[in-house]
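Per reviewer request, we include the raw input and output of the structure prediction for the construct analysed in the revised manuscript.
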Amino acid sequence: MKTALVIGATGLVGYQLVKQLMEDKDFGKVVVFSRRVTGLVSPRLEEHLIDFDHPEQWQHLVKGDVLFSALGTTLARAGSKKAQYKVDHGYQFQFAAAAARNAVPAYVLVSSAGASPKSMTFYMRMKGELERDVKGLLFSSLALIKPGPLVGARPEKRFGEQLGLAVIFFFNGLGLFRKYRPIKGEEVARAMIKAYKQGKPGVSSYNLDALFDLAR
């Protein structure tokens, strides 16, 4: 059975991902690296509370068959673009690099629809730069998961995000913004696991339509 490594396990997608991995018979162990506990309990679950700023304390533990990453924060929560970039790019890349050094063969990364290192939008550019940089780590299999806005129960309220979703739902009803239509966190999690199990060599990119197909 496989060992899955997970970062971002306390977020909307990551929490659902860990729950699904614990129920999947193909995975004998689910190893979570987080700044706080998930609250989940299973004999298959192993949790490490870490400080991402001190990789020397945890990088030797990053060993398994696949790294799933759903790590991320918001600009409002981070407080500045610099702080958000540190989490969404810096911590992500640092952890992926540790996995690559430890010969973890597969990496499944939650990115974003519209991600591009040339984007004029900070968030999309940040996600695009992360995609570009992790490609250079040369995982045997790299799956880029590119959802639109995420929907589902979150521990914290995000008024601006809720307002944005309401606008997108409205325009989706008119047949617009199809590329950015919302998707549930548990659907993204299900698609991540299926993308890994497809075992495609090299770099694979999954847009929103592909994610909905995988999540069925």
